[in-house]
Amino acid sequence: MLKPRIAVFILASFALAMVAEAADGDESNGTAQSFQAFSYQVPLLANAAGSFSVTGTLGGVEGEFLLDTGASMITVSRDFLESMTDAKRAPARRVAARLASGRVEAVEVYRFDTLQLGDSCLLGPVEVAVMPSGGRNLLGMNALMNAAPFAVSVSPPSLALSRCGLQPAVATR
Predict the structure, then answer these.
(1) Pick among 3.30.450.40, 3.90.550.10, 2.40.70.10, 2.40.50.100: CATH of 42-155
(2) Of 56, 103, 112, 152, which shows the fewest CB atoms inside 10 Å?
(3) What is this structure's pTM?
(4) pLDDT tens readout for residues 92-118
């Protein structure tokens, strides 16, 4: 029997393969038709290097999060964390994090009630690793697995998600 994490990875990989296959086909019904199976669409920002990022709000602060399926956890810089003045966050634990350079560093992990991706997707609660020496904010697999299966489209750049744990409150006057 497959473990839940392996099953989610397989589903996410299958969804990515479906989108890649659709993108190679007919432009008029390719990616758009494949994405109909997903409940939520979040626009991605593409950079010249071929990386994608998404606008997210954590602890009341909006920021750009690099889409990183190689990161096991959402990661933010210490500066980003300290900019959250009214954020409800709870220290969860300290973990050893293996960085892209291969170096291992102890980092603090905080628990947040929600992470909002784009305008329509609230996930939560989420755990977030805080890098003491700066770096980019990363959208890691712990967030993506909560919304899985998911798919990434390169044209137009978007992240398709099957589940968002919470719905944003509608403002009323």
Answers:
(1) 2.40.70.10
(2) 103
(3) 0.74
(4) 899 988 887 888 989 999 999 889 999
